[in-house]
Amino acid sequence: MNKHLLSIEDLSKSDAIQILDTAEEIARISDGPVKKLPTLRGRTIVNLFFEDSTRTRISFEAAAKRLSADVINFSAKGSSLSKGESLKDTALTLQAMGADAVVIRHGSSGAPARLADQSWMKGSVINAGDGTHEHPSQALLDSFTLRRHLRDSAGDLSGIKVAIVGDILHSRVARSNVLLLKKLGAEVTLVAPHTLLPFGIDQWPVNISYDFDDVLPHVDAVMMLRVQRERMSELFFPSEREYSRGFGLTKERLDRMPKGAVVMHPGPMNRGLEISAEAADAVNSVIVEQVTNGVTVRMAILYLLLGGMSA
Amino acid sequence: MERFHVTKAKDLRGKACELKFEGERIVTEFSSTDKVTVIDAGGSTLIPGLVDLHTHLREPGREDAETVLTGSLAAVAGGFTAISAMPNTAPVADTAGVVEQVFRLGQSHGLCDVFPIGAVTEGQAGTTLAEIAAMHASEARVRIFSDDGHCVADPLVMRRALEYVKNFDGVIAQHAQDPRLTNGAQMNEGLVSSVIGLKGWPAVAEESIIARDVLLAEHVNSRVHICHVSTAGSVEIIRWAKARGIRVTAEVTPHHLLLTDELARGFNPIYKVNPPLRTEKDVVALREGVADGTIDIIATDHAPHPAESKECEWSAASFGMTGLETALSVSYQALVATKTTSFEKLISLMSSNPAAIGKYEGHGSLKAGSYANFALVDLDAEWTVEPTAMRSKSKNTPFANYVLPVKVNQTYFKGNRVFSGGVK
Questions:
Q1: Predicted ipTM?
Q2: Min distance B226 CA to chain A CA atoms (Å)
Q3: CATH number of A8-134+291-307
Q4: CB pair distance less than 8 Å for A87 and B316
Q5: What is the pTM of this model?
Q6: Is A265 a catalytic residue?
Q7: Quick one: which of B316, B314, B318, B283 has its CA closest to B303?
């Protein structure tokens, strides 16, 4: 496996399946009385968060701590980062402090790649979401969740039909999921108004639909994406209600989903905009489970990236 | 008066040639046979000094990135004997005072001519015309006006500017970029931007401005020059405009003739440039535009930046690449090595054609009466681009470690040798 996890492109299909299988093993252990593993004792993992993201940071923090690693949280607010320190100097500082891995969240696409490429750091770099580029650990936990529900927790996702619905243009979750789902053999349909699909989408290996109702009866899973309200002022759609009518997972649409199909959302949700309360809390919603699986999958990622290098 | 006789040179077609000059001008025959110094060209190729219509020298204001002196040193190392300083300095070159300062700095260094380009609008803010006539009447004799870095986006401002410069046959050089279509844009809008999640810069943002401006130029019968054309659609529009008789000229940069947006995939902002690197299809169309005369000149858009402006994440990085020292080699690679144009044609794209657009008297020609501005180049030599070895104060070249054809051995400006590298 690659030293860094910057993009799903860094993983082969067997790497991805190894992460999912390892997460399954970890999940079995975590169901026991002792949740903590000694695997990364003495290793230091830095959570470097340039953007606020409590849930992703906590998830990585919990994962690292359950592997007995030392965790340092470095967030932009109130630190040298907010005083205009460059990414390079931050990296050199962390390197000097002996970080074995850096989990980075950054508003600029490619910032993790810069950390990894420029030999500013020797440790592993794990992308915890960069701009509108990728969020690979989210995609891995999504596939882990899908596999548990639709494939008995083993193998790949071949033949599974997944609809990703909403703001594809600005979504790093969508980009990573498209890459990983295709790698694992799933069939992906993107559902969005034209304005929220990137120019060039016609060359992606996916189906495109502008009609959610057309797609719904044929899915095994729907992944609803968060829609930021400020997109309205940037003219991507006219109003919340119009968006919700066309692309929201309403109660009515929930009822038209095939039996056994699951509802997913990476969070945080805008209830009433992209997803109704009924859908979010439905019996076939796996949204809360995604959060639990997030810790497990991130443990597997840290274990596989760092475990092999332990002294 | 000193007399020099360049011997054992080759001309642009590879035939043996020689050149005579007295003082700062080229002559057919010496006025006297006294004190003639022979310059043995050793079989290298004699080219007229190159002329760049698009250079960022950063002085005044950002002397940490480049100065008129270091930019001139880079220019002559690249075979240029005239460069044109873009006005996006601090303060902006929008008054006679600033353009004269830049012009005089160039004169005092004496390495090459530095012709300032004046801003079209005050502070390049796009709203009020700058004192264009005063800049023209100044010692700098400015004839080209541009808000480069910014587009003259307001159609009324553009119309007035085009009309106003007709008084002295000036030209407006437009940086064609609709600001509303490119707010926050980072790279070409296409497959690569969609995959790597950088905000796209649509081709139409360039093409719509060019379409508007050629129509405005036609309406008021003035001259418009299009800076750094980067898309296939732009080439088509300019081709159409020329066929219609509109007085439009166009430039392309060496990097847009060779590099594509695929390079952005690694997120290294050394490839971040305005206009952005486009697709293979655009590169092919630009080369065709050069071959059929739609594109008149090659201009470097030499844009030096200090290291910290590129050693960062992509969206925080500055736009721009250095180009003076690689322009001839990269253009040769893109156009001559691909058999798109002859070497002779390439040299006219980089000397006589830009000199004609800027009305740079005595430049871009080896005819008697012209300035003794020339370079001796080795067409058979290859060299490896090493950023640290460059004369420019900034090292932001996208061609680091490229092995490129054509080496500039010597450059002469107004009869004086101003560059000598790898003397044979």
A1: 0.93
A2: 26
A3: 3.40.50.1370
A4: yes
A5: 0.95
A6: no
A7: B318
